[in-house]
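Good morning,

Attaching, inline, the backbone tokens for the sequence recovery test we're adding to the shared suite. The designed sequence is right after.
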């Protein structure tokens, strides 16, 4: 077990406290927003059956699973000021495998959603002309591949790990890096599981944005109405992709620099971006909510109805004055 320097311990303690507070502050709103979106899809059959929402639902399910089951492990690490509990090799292996699998699954799902949205917007006629089972296969098979690739690959490199033996550091996040990252398997992992999804997301979103701007300038009439619906799809994907790319592009550059330029290349920023990776699944449901105007409208309607229900009883209340028997008072005065 490695130890931190004594004079730097207070700085680490403050940093861990800030990270812990930030993750806790975002976790509950993230879970509630995810549940709200699931209820919306569950009660709205038309929205639920729309092709472009299938992949988004899978992404949100994986994302919620990560928020509920994976993020408590780094939250516990930051709460304990940088201490892994329980400090066992089995726990470290599980944590590393689970977190790497979920991050890779989310990355590939984002990449596939970017490709799928591009096809649905600009090649929708091709999708409509496919036979029913081929159209379903085109939606389902990529989702299955994206969901299974990460767990299977990391089962080999982390759980079985035939290429090396891991050394555990119980005062480091994830108990230190898995040893396969320092072999050729790590180079393959960098290009296949990080750079490939990131580049796919970037390229297809760039093409989608460019064509969206061009189409909005030339379309007219009824075609323009259809294109406005496509713009909503592009906006939804753009919001999610922007946050994902804002974290993973710098992280990919740092990893490439560390491997091929200098062992200290932007090393001071590595810890920051490794932490920001945890922020992505926390804010993803909120970004999805921002791109769902129909759901936002329903929420506002429910809030207005609730407010009216609270106000109406107050408006219906009447102030009752005590009854005064004027005849009795007149008689008493006369007797006096």
């Amino acid at each position: 077990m490695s130890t931190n320097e004594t004079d730097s311990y207070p700085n680490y303690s403050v940093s861990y406290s800030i990270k812990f507070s930030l993750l806790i502050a975002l976790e509950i709103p993230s879970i509630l927003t995810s549940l709200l979106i699931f209820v919306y899809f569950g009660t709205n059959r038309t929205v639920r059956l729309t092709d472009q929402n299938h992949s988004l639902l899978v992404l949100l399910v994986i994302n919620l699973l990560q928020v509920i089951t994976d993020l408590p492990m780094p939250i516990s690490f930051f709460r304990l000021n940088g201490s892994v509990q329980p400090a066992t090799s089995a726990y470290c292996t599980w944590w590393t495998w689970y977190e790497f699998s979920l991050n890779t699954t989310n990355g590939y799902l984002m990449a596939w959603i970017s490709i799928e949205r591009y096809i649905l917007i600009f090649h929708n006629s091709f999708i409509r002309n496919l036979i029913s089972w081929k159209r379903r296969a085109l939606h389902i098979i990529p989702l299955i591949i994206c969901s299974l690739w990460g767990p299977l690959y990391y089962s080999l490199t982390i759980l079985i790990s035939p290429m090396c033996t891991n050394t555990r550091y119980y005062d480091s996040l994830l108990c230190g890096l898995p040893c396969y990252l320092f072999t050729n398997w790590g180079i393959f992992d960098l290009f296949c599981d990080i750079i490939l999804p990131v580049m796919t997301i970037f390229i297809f979103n760039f093409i989608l944005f460019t064509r969206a701007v061009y189409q909005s300038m030339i379309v007219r009439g009824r075609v323009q109405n259809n294109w406005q619906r496509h713009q909503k799809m592009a906006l939804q994907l753009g919001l999610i992709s922007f946050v994902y790319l804002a974290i993973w592009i710098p992280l990919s550059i740092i990893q490439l620099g560390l491997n091929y330029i200098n062992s200290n290349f932007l090393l001071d920023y590595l810890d920051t971006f490794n932490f920001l990776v945890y922020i992505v699944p926390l804010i993803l449901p909120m970004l999805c909510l921002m791109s769902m105007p129909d759901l936002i409208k329903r929420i506002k309607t429910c809030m207005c109805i609730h407010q009216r229900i609270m106000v109406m009883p107050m408006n219906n209340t009447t102030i009752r004055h005590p009854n005064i028997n004027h005849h009795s008072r007149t008689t008493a005065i006369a007797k006096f």
